[in-house]
Amino acid sequence: MDEEHYLNEPEAQEGFHFIQKKGDLFSTPETESLAHCISEDCRMGKGIAVIFKKKFAGIEDLKRQDKKPGEVAVLKRGQRFVYYLITKAKANDKPTYDTLKSSLKEMKRHCKQNNVTHLSIPRIGCGLDGLDWDEVSVILCEIFSDMNLILTVYAL
């Protein structure tokens, strides 16, 4: 979908919209929730996690939530939720598709409970974590297809 389609459609039609675009994830409006993958130890020392850590802080808040792989930790920042998908135990581990799916399902529950209709993400699990984007994109569409949600995936 192109930029114009994105700008004209979201509020006009309900349902699930999966949009992939080039750009900066952090340029999204502050009303859009964000998500990315981290380890249970909340290290966030490499990749896009470093930017999340600097921009949203809250490491101690995340640790206090005591989430395990397959769960999701959440920070509220202004009008948005920032979701931290816990997909592995330690920073140097690799996630599995099962822990990713489980974390995404937990995030979906939170999104539904809190009326989140705009969620922006990087290609989760596919950078340093090494999961396959073709498979992850199918998982995302399967999990969120029954929601009224605009899911925008940003790639540089």
From TrEMBL:
<dbReference type="Pfam" id="PF01661">
    <property type="entry name" value="Macro"/>
</dbReference>
<dbReference type="InterPro" id="IPR043472">
    <property type="entry name" value="Macro_dom-like"/>
</dbReference>
<dbReference type="InterPro" id="IPR050892">
    <property type="entry name" value="ADP-ribose_metab_enzymes"/>
</dbReference>
<dbReference type="InterPro" id="IPR002589">
    <property type="entry name" value="Macro_dom"/>
</dbReference>
<protein>
    <recommendedName>
        <fullName>Macro domain-containing protein</fullName>
    </recommendedName>
</protein>
<feature type="domain" description="Macro">
    <location>
        <begin position="5"/>
        <end position="156"/>
    </location>
</feature>
